[in-house]
Amino acid sequence: MADRRMLAALVSGAAIVGLSAGLFFWSQMRGDADVFAACAQGQVAGGMGAIGGDFTLVSDAGETLSSAEALARPSLVYFGYTFCPDVCPLDTVRNADAADLLAEDGHDVQPVFVTVDPARDTPEVMAEFTDAIGGDTLGLTGSAEQVKAAADAYRVYFRVPDSDEEYYLVDHTTFTYLVLPGHGTVTYFRRETPAEEMAERVECFLNAA
């Protein structure tokens, strides 16, 4: 009887140790999910870690940049196009406004505008657009292949019509992604999110990082 009790105690102790180790490694695997748990308000299939990745694009200054170079600071990343008549300008201005609000609280956040229409959005066109938007907005373009690779990494849908017309429209998704150096994409914002709410949520992530 005593031997069985001792064996049971040993087994129980081993189980507790195993459970503790399992919980530890599980928490490590969760990583940013724990760090940013209080800030997250949306989920995507596969988790936020499935959004984003390496890319190479050309800046509005004509410089070829890797994703690490382009997103060296906390960034609000949006995919659109400069010929967009309404949605893209409103969204990019909102992102710049949120960055300005964050700057007032001492946070350096960069709005990033990635075109899905590189045929028309040359670096020169992008520079005119980002200058008009303001807020230290970085414009990124590139070849059709480079743009598609970046869009695919961020799960961005877009469709450029096969048209000879100058003023064609491009269908595309309109999420803005918050990308933090060392963490990657940590959350996203829908276009109806106002600048004040965006700034508040971004600040939560910045303080937790």
TrEMBL record:
Gene3D superfamilies: Glutaredoxin. InterPro entries: SCO1/SenC, Thioredoxin-like_sf, Thioredoxin_domain. GO terms for molecular function: metal ion binding. Disulfide bonds join C84-C88. Keywords: Copper, Disulfide bond, Metal-binding. Pfam families: SCO1-SenC. The keyword Hydrolase does not apply. This is Protein senC.
